[in-house]
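Key result, reporting period 2: structure in, sequence out.
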């Protein structure tokens, strides 16, 4: 009896990804990356807006403290110290108003301790949340959106004195 070896061609099936599958996966990754970038950018802007609100709100007490002594002066020169006393600067504008790691946001300060109601006006420009770009009137009484005449009675400001969207 003659034995014959049957030779079988064994093909090892090495299945990989098709071009369509790769393109779909890349498209999904691209869409997810775009969504994440948009959401983190919006979160950063909201964080900067919150820091701006905190800076302006803290100035309310600072104005009251500065103007509690009639010898003190609220400075009107942009870039100068906000409150000067006989012993030197008390509220440094750079430390009080500058947000960390945000060189684009600029502030201009004007005001007086000698007015009937002591207040300062703070103008914010180039804020990432464009709704925050405005003039804010800050006094010991409160924080108001827009230039406000505080010699007339004012109602409590809506939204804690900030425009909607800020």
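The corresponding designed sequence is given below.
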């Amino acid at each position: 009896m003659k034995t014959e070896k049957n030779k079988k061609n064994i093909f090892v099936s090495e299945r990989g990804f098709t071009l369509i599958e790769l393109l779909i996966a890349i498209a999904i990754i691209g869409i997810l990356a775009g969504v994440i970038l948009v959401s983190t950018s919006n979160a950063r802007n909201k964080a900067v807006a919150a820091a701006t609100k905190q800076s302006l709100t803290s100035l309310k007490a600072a104005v009251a403290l500065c103007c509690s002594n009639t010898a003190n002066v609220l400075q009107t020169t942009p870039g100068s110290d906000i409150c000067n006393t006989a012993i030197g600067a008390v509220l440094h504008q750079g430390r009080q108003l500058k947000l960390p790691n945000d060189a684009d946001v600029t502030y201009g300060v004007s005001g007086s301790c000698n007015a009937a109601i002591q207040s300062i006006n703070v103008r914010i420009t180039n804020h990432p949340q464009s709704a925050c770009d405005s003039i804010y009137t800050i006094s010991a009484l409160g924080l108001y959106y827009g230039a406000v005449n505080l010699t007339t009675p004012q109602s409590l400001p809506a939204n804690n004195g900030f425009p909607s969207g800020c």
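Helices lie at 19-67, 93-97. Residues 19-145 form one domain. This case is discussed further under Risks and Mitigation.
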